[in-house]
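User: Fold this, then the next.

Assistant: Folding the first:
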Amino acid sequence: MRRAASPTYVGCVSRGAWRRWSIVASGTALLCALPAVIAALPVPASSISAPALRARILASARVPYQGYAESTVNLGLPQLPDLHNVSTLLDGTTDQYVWYLSPAYWRADNVTGTGESDTYADGGVTYLWNYGTNLLTQVTGAQPVRLPRAPDLLPPALAQRLLNTAGRADRISRLPARRIAGMDAAGLRLVPAGTDTTIGAVDIWADPASGLPVEVQISGRGTGHQPGQPVLISTFLELRQTRPDLATVTPHPITFVL
């Protein structure tokens, strides 16, 4: 004959189980809230000067990294039937995973709700992979003029291009630091001196140690001396400054066949 469990024993087990699950639930809630708590903490100011930060950003082309970036552009352009991909880049949101080993070896995956298109830089040769059409295109030789591609909107590529094309009379100054993708990033503002541009300001936040840009905002001309609202925001949501494997950034055509 089986003996019935003692009511006192059952009560102790229930209270013990409840206590353990309460601890688990509290720990889970704490872990979920941790990113928001960290983001809300004050960001330490960086003492780096504007010219020094600009120099580090320009020298950061060889800094390896891996991450996930989102770019939002609002230029109010019309949809062009033959240039749908370009229209989306310049007036919409672009999500990309990127693995960057060096200027000659990197990979960027543009992910959409309907498919994926990847860009590979493989030692001076560019490969374009379209998942929807199952097509791998090899681009060789120099291209003096080409249409914009999704990787052009990544914060490092965008920041370095804008700073490289800045004029000597353009003004640079520091911006308050911000926490972006878990990093305390130093801010830099570039204000064009010419009156023949619609750009009011270019704001860049970068790792003050490596110079790697983590966010870029381009604002139109506003009223007075203040820039208007950003028309382009490109930022990392996840970022690691680590070297990806060479195999990750190397295209393997045989794997593309369905």
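Now the next one, as you asked:
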Amino acid sequence: MKRLSCSRIADSPKGRSGRNRRGVVDPIPGLEPGQDLLPLLRPYVRHCGDSHRKAWVISSRKLLDYLLVYIAEGRGRFVIGGREYEAREGDLFWIPPDTCHAMEGFPPAMHCPYVHFDLVYRADHSHWDFSIPEGMTELPPEFAPLLHPPLNDERIASLTGRIRSHTNRRVGQLMQDVCMEAARAQPFAGLKMSGLMMEIVAEILRGQEQRPRGDMTHVPLLEKTADQMITECATPPALGELARRCGLSASHFRHLFGQHYGCSPRTYMRRARLHKAKELMVSTAMTLSEIAASLGFETVHSLSRAFSEAEGISPSEYRHCASVRTRVEGRKTPYKF
């Protein structure tokens, strides 16, 4: 784990400072007073991981950037801004910069993808890479230039602590996509991860809207069924079974699903299988034949053909790693700086 000393930060160029000589945080570049912040977001992923951990504890600390944690499996306890939360499967935790927090995962284990990120990329401020140690609840003055500035947007400012909504599972999947892109480290991976983080913010805000009225009443149930389709992608249920779970006829389910997801249930299932294949290619040493068999493809050639049609490259090419600056847990290929 790479660390950066306080003295090194203090010696950074003057242009890195996020505060002017009066000690006031500089505004977000390009943001005029009263202007909507969301169109100017350009997230920067600094560190991520798709962790399967045994019992673990991180004691109180504050961060310079944002931290997002999704509980895919397991239970634990989070304390964020003085408020204690039970953490269970499906929960999402948003921790803003300069916010005191502590985290604990209970035995036997927890699966918790996480991402450290800036919401707004600042060329003179964002390129740092070190870890804030446990117990640091007061950030030293030397760290001030690197602290992400506050965002004057009520929608973003209201995000703190535990989030529970029907979009959490989708957010968790996107966070795993971020980790996969970081692990693959292909050219332009930073742009890809930034785009995925934009999707994540959109899904979180969409979940916070909570408007189950009119033609939106079916959305939570549809998304729950879509989550089940992803889980069962190796042995996909029949259309009639999916419709039954939603209490709909097959034709009505297909119509509503297409309206919401922009594709048929069959296409969605095929994409889910290929997504799982990508995850296994990156995170395991399974052969392509083993991956094909585990996901219900008739042969490895069927997997390769479907993958190449969807991704534009072969599975073997997909597994090839280049280099990227993002630090990712478990990565074996050295980074180039």
